[in-house]
Amino acid sequence: AGVFTYDPGFTSTASCDSTITYIDGEKGVLLHRGYPISQLASQSHYLEVCYLLLYGELPSAAQLEDFESTITRHTMLHEQMQYFFRGFRRDAHPMATMVGVVGAMSAFYHDSTDINDPKQREIASHRLIAKMPTIAAWAYKYNLGQPFIYPRNDLDYASNFLHMCFAVPAEEYHVNPIIARAMDRIFTLHADHEQNASTSTVRLASSSGANPFACIAAGIACLWGPAHGGANQACLEMLKEIGTPDRIPEYIARAKDKNDPFRLMGFGHRVYKNFDPRAMVMKQSADEILDLLGVHNNPILATAKELEQQALADPYFAEKKLFPNVDFYSGVILEAMGFPTSMFTPIFALSRTVGWISQWKEQLEDPAHKIGRPRQLYLGATERDYVDIEDR
Ligand code: CMC
């Protein structure tokens, strides 16, 4: 019956070839189209990185202006989509709302469900990148019971998102440029990460010819899990539960205990075995932003730093090569910006949308692409005869 490789968790299987993102897990290297993440995070900005991921090269000034204006033109949602939000329970997790609303986009934008037309594929990409902040912000506003705030096209991408999250009609809201810059950096640090679980989900969904909105909804659903994007929420909740640095040893002992399912959230990575370059930028960013916002002696940041130090000094974590990942410090920054923990993973999802859609596009442009169809190692019963119910 043929010879298959057995590789649960795909620890040694390459599912595709790609020219988008390169990771060297031993050296802590992350490159998008060849450019190091640290340079993109400090010198570029999110929409420029979006262009780079989608089209393969950094844009010229004219190309960037054109791209930014296209994305800005697509930020509104069809007015009728508000009914989708309103159909959810008031306390719905915004990730649940996002899975539903993004999936529902295929019912509103029939034209860009035509995946065989490159122009429609491009419009679908633009629509998703443009509308995701509106969708995430509205999921949040719905939780709060506040009116949906429409996008403002005079603002940059990050500022517009902050505006839709925090403005209310009753008073004027000014986006703090320090917060907007930090927000943009968080988007950039999450933009793509090659064949992680949610991206692989998007590619597998797309391999059947499913429409782009359905594929991205599948990616959002996968990202939600605490072993993946849900770790940023879980990590901040853990840091709050720890509360003060004196309780850290107790949690480290629990993480090491094989009979306790508890893991240090924001720690460990399938690919990075020395450090996660995104976590390095995030840690520095946490210091900077809290400083700039005048937040001194933040107890959560202090607990995070102490936890990192104690874990790294512990032979268990050293032997297993467990280091802080991108989710370890992001929550500290997001909380300082005023986001509740339930919004952390939606922010990851909106940032990763460009990565998902770039990989989706790359897959469809590959003339050799075929449906993803893993095999299995069957361990069930051998063939046997059906038994009538009265004889069982
Ligand atoms: N705390 C304690 N022990 C851990 C941890 C942790 N956070 N992570 C891994 N281990 C141990 C694990 O118990 C196992 O031990 P043993 O070999 O004795 O059975 C060993 O390290 C290897 O772990 P694994 O689960 O086989 O490794 P994996 O590559 O399958 O999983 C991971 C990677 C990220 C899912 C895992 O490290 C984890 O659960 N971390 C916590 C959740 C987290 O922070 N996720 C975010 C990942 S980065 C951003 C993203 O992908 O969204």
TrEMBL record:
CDD domains: EcCS_like
UniProt GO MF annotations: citrate synthase activity
Catalytic function, reaction form: oxaloacetate + acetyl-CoA + H2O = citrate + CoA + H(+)
Classification via PROSITE patterns: CITRATE_SYNTHASE (PS00480)
Involved pathway(s): Carbohydrate metabolism; tricarboxylic acid cycle; isocitrate from oxaloacetate: step 1/2
Keyword Acyltransferase: yes
Keyword annotations: Acyltransferase, Transferase, Tricarboxylic acid cycle
Pfam families reported in the protein's UniProt record: Citrate_synt
Keyword Acyltransferase: yes
InterPro entries, sorted: Citrate_synth-like_lrg_a-sub (IPR016142), Citrate_synth-like_sm_a-sub (IPR016143), Citrate_synthase (IPR002020), Citrate_synthase_AS (IPR019810), Citrate_synthase_bac-typ (IPR024176), Citrate_synthase_sf (IPR036969), Citrate_synthase_typ-I (IPR010953)
Family assignment from sequence similarity: Belongs to the citrate synthase family.
Protein name: Citrate synthase
Organism whose genome encodes this protein: Mesobacterium hydrothermale
Gene name of this polypeptide: gltA
